[in-house]
Amino acid sequence: MSDIKVGDVVKLKSGGPDMTVKDLGDYSPMHSENSAKCVWFDGKKLNEEVFGVDTLKHAPKGFVGVI
What we know:
Layout: E1 9-12, E2 15-25, E3 35-42, E4 45-52, E5 56-58
Antiparallel strand pairs: 1-2, 1-5, 2-3, 3-4
């Protein structure tokens, strides 16, 4: 069972941009019931695609420092 939830920032295990999980569900027939609809920006262009949750991992959190 995946611990990925709506609103999580994820990326493909094989690499790629950080994406936000917009929805989880069954997007058959192309994907299993464990699918995530993800959105991300490429410059100003909004992209949306469905991925199997088993192909995703949580994106590393960026460093937030205090000056």
